[in-house]
Amino acid sequence: MNKAISLALLVGGVILIICGLNESDSIGSSFSRFFTGNPTDKSIWLLIGGVVATIVGAAGLLRDTKAT
After folding, report:
1. For residue 32, what are the CA distances in angstroms to 7, 20, 22, 40?
2. Domain count of the chain?
3. Domain boundaries, position 6
């Protein structure tokens, strides 16, 4: 069961990273970057959440569950 949750986190994290990259290339983020020098908060949070979920999912899959 833990492997399924870890795999779901890994896949969800990759999806969030892709969405964050797409959001950072959007017109709204381009305007924000033009006026403030930074991308939108939404794109930053999507990227951060994606990286965290991917790391947690990968760590859960790589962890040895047979050790006692």
Report:
1. 34, 15, 15, 6
2. 1
3. 2-62
Q: What is the pLDDT of residues 14-54, one digit of tens each?
A: 999 999 999 888 888 888 888 888 888 889 999 999 999 99
Is 68 a member of any domain?
no
Q: Look at residue 37 and give its three-state secondary structure.
A: coil
CB atoms within 10 A of CB 35: 8
Whether the predicted model's global pTM rises above the 0.85 cut: no
H-type alpha helices, the chain = 2-24, 27-36, 41-62
Considering the domain boundaries, does residue 67 fall inside one?
A: no
Residues 59, 2 contacting (CB under 8 angstroms): no
Helix (H, G, I), strand (E, B) or coil at 51: helix
Only one residue has tokens 């290339």, namely 25
